[in-house]
Amino acid sequence: MRYRQIHLDFHTAPVIGDVGVDFDVKDFVQTLKDAHVNSINIFAKCHHGMCYYPTKIGKMHPSLKYDLMGQMIEELHKNDITCPIYFPIGWEEDAADHTEWLEMGEDGIPGHKKPDDESYYSWRKLCLNNSAYKEYIKAQVAELIDNYEVDGFWFDIIFQRKCICDECVAEMQAEGLDPKKERDVLKHDEQVLYKFQREINDFVASKGKNIPTFYNSSWAPNNGADGFEIDKRAALQDHMEIESLPSGEWGYNHFPLFVNYHNRNNGDVIGMNGKFHLSWGDHGSLKNNEALEYECFRMIANGCACSVGDQLHPRGYMNKAAYARIGKVYSEIEKLEKYTEGSEKVADIGVVVSTDFYTRNTFSDEGVMRMLMELHYTFDFIPASENLRRYKMIILPDKVNVDGELSVKLKEYIEAGGKVLATYRSTDKDSLDVEYIRESDYEPSYICIDDGLIKDVESLEYVCYVRGAYVKSSLPVKAYVGDPYYNRTADCFSSHRHFPFNKKSEYPAIVLNDKIAYCSFPLFEDYIVNGNRVYRDIIGYMIGELLDNPTVMVEAPTCAEVTVRRKAGKQYVHIISYIPERRTKTIDVVDTKLPILNTKIYMSKDVGYMDEGYTKAKLVRSGETFDLVDEGDGKLSVTIPVIDGYECVELS
User: Fold this and answer.
1) Residue 476's Cα: distance from chain center in Å?
2) Nearest to 526 by CA among 463, 571, 477
3) What's the CATH number where 602 sits?
């Protein structure tokens, strides 16, 4: 896996009449080399359905007079730069003229696009279950494999949008699914994607050249409410890639949410951002230097290779300013990659994914991710089927269905010394000693915190905006649910918002012993929606009561991001400190890195993979070394005087 990649878009309308006239293949490759790039995804065709090589199957762009893709491949290979082929499938306007290939939505609009739709990303969507369209795709893939030295395929737009075309409806009915039920249609969409990937993989393999494949899709970290495991589809490709342009629709919470699921087993993972200020096709813009650093350092700190998205000008010339900026960051990545390549992730906490695939609600997962990042705990998102004993602690956020199988696993895990934290509907009488009774009578209601329970949290009845649950448990009660006077209605209200606290109820809000901690409110969802710091303080208290010996802990501001990886008997602590700020109505902007002073790192001596006699800490970027201090109580420490935006600390 190459660590310094470019993903090169070229979605170029057929009305543009001078495609490739300024392309200079020598300058193209030299620009990449100067930017420390060692792999680039190049385009065979685009969302307009235009091909950029001579084709007998599709349609070559009408103003292109030569084999643009072929020139790229030949010169890139001469310079040891790999170049997988970008091949969009679900969006290609030329192929969409075959109206019988289009998806059909419940609104009856072919391809989901109205004739007067001028919005961004308003492409007609083709059905990946259509037999004739799949044969067309295979013919183009065969043409490329037969005529070029192909390093791999990067297939794009691998998704379905609740298609009820004739072919999909017939297949659903044959499988006992009801095309009138949204849940069944969504389930069929997932089955279509799995079948499509497997069919294309088999076809590529049949050409006998061992060509890697990747399918760009919605790789959301969930299993699906009916047991469909996203991992089954992820296994049908050679690596995982996380497309995440934070200034586009993704935001800065997207990448850590996805990467902490997909890198848990140390497979090949690539992170992708873009050089754009906004998102794809944002011509004439450049991402801030600090933002590009932040996003790429995030990738490598999570064991990922880096891929920066760009779009070539229709005339074929390179944006030298963009590649100067990329090269500045990639020169740093080149120095760092030897420390992360082949490294393994360290995670003390396993978070069982709570997301229901069919509702696409990631609030609880996003909330627990933000809290753990801000508290600097190491964690993985995991499916319920995971081996729980990999982790010192398991978190069940808000809405995990603790069914019979998971209940048994949790009980065995706790009996073996594991610790469990759960919230809201993640209850189970047998394994957790918490029995769900019903939803709370009030929304919002209160959680009654007494003095001395949580450090730096004053005694108060704290409002919880999202409705909680009434439960019963024999575990020690640390806090109770507080009731307001009434729920606010049109006829019964007081002041501007909700009714104030009235009285403490009989129902526990927090129960906790030395193995299990539970809160009856959906604090993770409430935190990501409403951002009340006390919710993080409560969760931090509960984790602290259970997890007494984390592998690594870092004393740093909550804005700092910490990951830990290991390699060859050494630990690598990555600390990132940049500041995303909401300066517009819709996007977070990064143009500032925040130096942090006197950052103290603690490491546990009770770690099985560590070599004996850890004594040194080294700053990988500067080479500066420090002695580790024995703190007693099974801990070593080191204090780093200054971390200027990003540092990788080697403990050895």
Assistant:
1) 37
2) 463
3) 2.60.40.1180
Quick check: 53 and 69 in contact, CB under 8 A? yes
Q: Are residues 209 and 224 both part of a single domain?
A: yes
Boundary residue ending a domain (511, 546, 581): 546
Alpha-helical runs (H) found in 127-240: 131-147, 166-174, 182-206, 230-234
| pLDDT band for position 445 (cuts 50, 70, 90) | very high
533 and 557 in a single domain? The answer is no
Q: Round to whole Å and give the CA distance between 479 and 504.
A: 10
pLDDT for res 225: 43
**Token duo for residue 109:** 């609009």
* E strand or H helix that includes residue 649: strand 646-651
Indicate whether 355 and 329 sit together in one domain: no
- Residue 602, classed as helix, strand or coil, is strand
3-state class (DSSP) for residue 293:
helix
d(CA 390, CA 630): 27
Reported as type and span, the H/E element at residue 298 is helix 289-301
* CATH value at residue 511: 3.40.50.880
The dihedral over CA atoms of 541, 546, 547, 548, expressed in degrees to the nearest 10, equals: 90
Q: Distance between CA atoms of 122 and 598, rounded to whole angstroms?
A: 50
Q: Do 241 and 273 form a contact (C-beta atoms < 8 A)?
A: no
- Cβ neighbours of residue 625 under 8 Å, at least 6 residues apart? 616, 617, 618, 619
- Yes or no: say if 124 and 102 are a contact pair by the CB < 8 Å rule: yes
C-alpha separations of 458 from 484, 546, 635 in Å: 20, 22, 30
Structural domains of the chain, count:
3
- Is pLDDT at 430 greater than 80 in this prediction? yes
What is the number of other CB atoms lying within 10 angstroms of the CB of residue 284? 7
Instruction: Mention every residue, 6+ apart, whose C-beta is less than 8 A from residue 23.
Output: 68, 71, 315, 316, 317
Distances (CA, A) of 597 to 96, 372, 570, 621, 640: 57, 22, 24, 17, 7
**Cα(509)–Cα(470) distance, rounded to whole angstroms?**
8
State both tokens at 145. Answer: 């494999």
| C-alpha span between 404 and 424 (Å, rounded) | 18
What is the domain extent for residue 466? Answer: 349-546
Answer whether the bond into residue 444 is a cis peptide, omega within 30°: yes
Pairing of strands 4-9, 39-43: parallel
**Backbone conformation region of residue 456, classed left if phi is above 0, alpha if psi is from -120 to 50, else beta:** left
Cα within 13 Å of Cα(253), Cβ side = 15
For the stretch 469-511, pLDDT in tens is 999 999 999 999 999 999 999 999 999 999 999 999 999 999 9
Whether 250 and 156 map to the same domain: the answer is yes
Are 251 and 370 within one domain? Answer: no
Rounded Cα–Cα distance for residues 143 and 282 (Å): 32
Dihedral in degrees, nearest 10, Cα atoms 349, 354, 355, 356: 150
Question: pLDDT band at 560, cuts 50/70/90?
Answer: very high
